[in-house]
Amino acid sequence: MTIFDVDIDALSGGSADMDRYRGQVVLVVNVASKCGLTPQYAGLEQLHGTYADRGLVVLGVPCNQFGGQEPGSAAEIEDFCQVNYGVTFPITEKVEVNGPGRHRLYQELVGDGPDIGWNFEKFLVAPDGEVAARFGPRTEPQDGEVVAVIEKLLPR
């Protein structure tokens, strides 16, 4: 099983259809609207704009487990992302990323690794569904190390 086999809903409702991303590079990020790291949405949107044509999918996954920093409804989250950052990449329903209610997506991403530390932790998933890299919350989306792994995973 990989993330491509997981059922998760889109923020706007209905299935996010993870299977459609099979064969692509996916950057999964647990996001929050009221966090000091929230400006990373701009960098995520920039990565999406730069690499989507080559097969990168940026996937935002809202989570309210860290300081209650994603308290809004789906409509409020969507509005916030559009108005403040012009987000065009897909965003899923709000889920739990740690603890007994951890969503299956994060069960697959984390595996036996440590729990998610905070908002904006990043997982780069290879086209075969394997986690290729994990980056901490303070690692900016355009950090050279993140970009290097993206470039390595994407077709030339």
TrEMBL record:
The keyword Phosphoprotein does not apply. Coiled coil: none annotated. This is Glutathione peroxidase. Belongs to the glutathione peroxidase family. InterPro entries: Glutathione_peroxidase, GPX_AS, Thioredoxin-like_sf. The keyword Oxidoreductase applies. The active site is at C35. The lineage of its organism: Bacteria, Bacillati, Actinomycetota, Actinomycetes, Micromonosporales.
